[in-house]
Amino acid sequence: MKSKCFPSSLLLLLLLEMSCVSLKESRKPNFVLMMVDDLGIGDLGCYGNKTLRTPNIDRLAEEGVKMTHHIAAASLCTPSRAAFLTGRYPIRSGLYGTGRVSVFLINAAPGGLPSREVTFAKLAKQQGYETALIGKWHLGLNCHSSDDHCHHPSVHGFDFFYGTPMTNLRDCQPGQDTIFKIQKYLPYRTMGIVLLSAVLLHYCGFITIRRGVVLGLLSLLALAGALLMGFIRALPYFNCILMRDHRIVEQPYVSENLTQRMTHEAVNFMERNSEKPFLLFFSFVQVHTALFAAPPFKGSSKHGIYGDAVHEVDWSVGQLMKTLEKLKLTENTLVYLTSDQGAHLEEISSRGEVHRGWNGIYKAGKSTSWEGGIRVPGIVRWPGIIPAGKEIDVPTSNMDLFPTVVRQSGALVPQDREIDGHDLMDLLQGKVQKSNHEFLYHYCNQYLHAVRWHPRDSDMVWKAFFYTPNFFPANETACFNTHVCFCGLEYVTQHDPPLLFELTRDPSETTELTPDNEPAYHSVLAVMKEAAEKHLKSTTPGESQLTIGGLLWRPWMQPCCSSFSQLCQCQRDQ
Fold first, then answer.
1. Number of domains composing the chain
2. Which domain covers residue 199, as residue numbers?
């Protein structure tokens, strides 16, 4: 008679299988978050581009959700990235300028993302995640000395950092000139003309000046000019720094193969941590100028070096996705791809080459609150959790990633501060049809330039402008005379009553609404003005990190991997 007992070996295998399934189901998801620098929404095939090849990014959109009304919280790098990491309008963190400069331009300056701010990386780390930032930081480095690293990514929750604390400036690419246009921003030419005119008038007998005074003024002017030119010549050594954690490994960095090296580091990070939950923030230095591309991608596009750089970014995305597949982590990883703001339309190289991207049908670009400056790609993929091939056309924000990532990591969204982002999961999964953003506010520095309203009981999306940038004469979309559009009152036009547009009918913002062509004009504006006033009254700006004092170069704070006499040079990462 055969035993009716279940064979012990089969029972053991069944228990092991059930245990593996249980562990798989209980394991926290991984996060791969990618932000491309200055990428236009119109540069990607999945958003309508027909002349650039982005198959890997397009595949992400096919396998996940594509958000077509995804908004950056600011139209410039530093404030936008602060908002992305914290889920808060950058004005709350003090990441707003008080003058023309709205981003960090010098490594040796004390401004940065305050340590009191809480990032999604910091909260994920507390939940046992391994966290890494690879690429661009642009949120400060030091406070008082060259190595106190008070604003370093490690202070904000990143276990591993491989990248540049600044951004990819023109000064970092040989032959691409400098972002510091002396003749535009500093009055040395005017001072020289005035001084020389005074000397000529003196020798012609019209005015009397002591000879010593003339020589002294000329000497001071020459010394100031020489020091300034020397500083600008040294900028690649001072600003173009590659770090591994807290150590400078390349100064100045070689940009040509930079994306490939960063991709290699990202792949290694995922492989090292494949057995534990991880959060990877890959922050591309491309396609910000100065533009570059590795040899395999040079000449690969119809759009010059800009298109080549987009192709290289797409290749990098493909390498990261292949690594997830190889490690069998695809189904347990939330992948997100975006841009920090719209394409920079003012970018023309020192040789006159067009170095700008395309914002599709949207007006203007980087550094403006028009749609071209703040409407960005937003792609989320998580197989089995988020449906594939879905498109969402309601307002969402890159601030929404903060509460989304925090909750999925098992952490709690902080209750001791205002969080402006909203969890995206119900919207992505189709459980709700509208986001929780009834109003979105669009700042330029400390000024509220525009407000967006998506009424709860309507599909319409209204947008009202209180200020708009003054575009270059004869150009309706860019500020070519200033390199970027500035926020100060002398560079904008104030609108009272505000300019009003309805974006579902007019996404290109071409037709201004008036009482004559919009019956709801007065009632809509009344609601939006009231919302803006309420928001401003309830919003306490943090102490500005982008004041003149927070931006000026301080020699004792200069990161340097060698002595100043050697011009801060090293190549330790080859």
1. 2
2. 182-232
- Cα(255)–Cα(285) distance, rounded to whole angstroms? 9
Would residue 138 show up in a list of annotated catalytic residues for this protein?
yes
- Rounded (5°) CA angle 147-150-152: 85
Please report whether residue 18 resides in a domain: no
Residue 190 domain-assigned (yes or no): yes
DSSP string, 536-550: HHH--PPPPSBSHHH
pTM here is: 0.89
Of the residues 70, 138, 311, 454, only one is catalytic, namely 138
Neighbours of 340 (CB within 10 A): 29
Q: Which of 46, 69, 70, 77 is catalytic?
A: 77
CATH label of the domain that carries residue 227: 1.10.287
* Helix (H/G/I), strand (E/B), else coil: 330: helix
Do 399 and 292 share a structural domain?
Answer: yes
- Same domain membership, residue 260 and residue 158: yes
Domain boundary among 232, 251, 274: 232
In a domain, 3, yes or no: no
Please give the chain's pLDDT, 574 residues, in tens.
Answer: 444 444 555 555 555 554 444 444 468 999 999 999 999 999 999 999 999 999 999 999 999 999 999 999 999 999 999 999 999 999 999 999 888 888 998 899 999 999 999 999 999 999 999 999 999 999 999 999 999 999 999 999 999 999 999 999 888 887 666 666 544 444 445 545 555 565 555 556 555 556 666 566 656 666 655 555 566 666 777 889 999 999 999 999 999 899 999 999 999 999 999 999 999 999 999 999 889 999 999 999 999 999 999 999 999 999 999 999 999 999 999 999 999 999 999 888 777 788 889 999 999 999 999 999 999 999 999 999 999 999 999 999 999 999 999 999 999 999 999 999 999 999 999 999 999 999 999 999 999 999 999 999 999 999 999 999 999 888 888 998 778 899 988 999 999 999 999 999 999 999 999 999 999 999 999 999 999 999 999 999 999 999 988 888 898 999 998 776 667 888 887 6
